[in-house]
Amino acid sequence: MHIREMTQVALFAAIMGALGLLPPLFLSFTPVPITMQTIGVLLAGGILGARLGAMSQIVFLLLVATGLPLLSGGRGGLGVFVGPSAGYILSYPITAFCLGYIQSRFKQLRLGPVLLTNLTIGIFLIYLFGVPVQAFVMNIDLLLAMKMSLVYLPGDAIKATLASFVVYKLQAYPVFNRRLLTS
């Protein structure tokens, strides 16, 4: 691994921690808060690519596991990996990897396909892991957990749109454009 790659991985782990400084929004009917860290996952996959994006999220989760309060609301430690948010949190590296992989297959990075990928694959993967774990930990029916998660969709759509725009705009800068760095 090159110094530049290590720096990028560390930078995005730090960005995730910085996004955790923004206070979470707790809803009365679910213990899973609305946070801004979802946007960091989408950015990591889109900007760093599959391998480095996933690595940045793994580094972030390892820091959280050591007890650093990097999750929104100052949460950290091993307890967060067995709580209602565990599935959402554990989906971060997988989501970043899949987004980076799919977006690397685009011949040209355009806003529309990036947005579509973030809205469908990105958000879907986070929910695919998060909702069943939330249902299991809360001991509720999966269908009820799915219904409860519908409240997150508008905010996640906004975050996916914002992340897509940033990924699209940053491709013009060689330091952020994987295609220019590898050629």
Automatic annotation (TrEMBL):
It is a multi-pass membrane protein. Keywords: Cell membrane, Membrane, Transmembrane, Transmembrane helix, Transport. The chain crosses the membrane at residues 6-27, 39-65, 85-102, 114-137, 157-176. Its main location: membrane. It is found in: Cell membrane. Pfam families: BioY (PF02632). The keyword Cell membrane applies. It comes from the Bacteria. PANTHER family: BIOTIN TRANSPORTER BIOY, BIOTIN TRANSPORTER BIOY-RELATED. Belongs to the BioY family. This is Biotin transporter. It comes from Sporosarcina soli. The lineage of its organism: Bacteria, Bacillati, Bacillota, Bacilli, Bacillales.
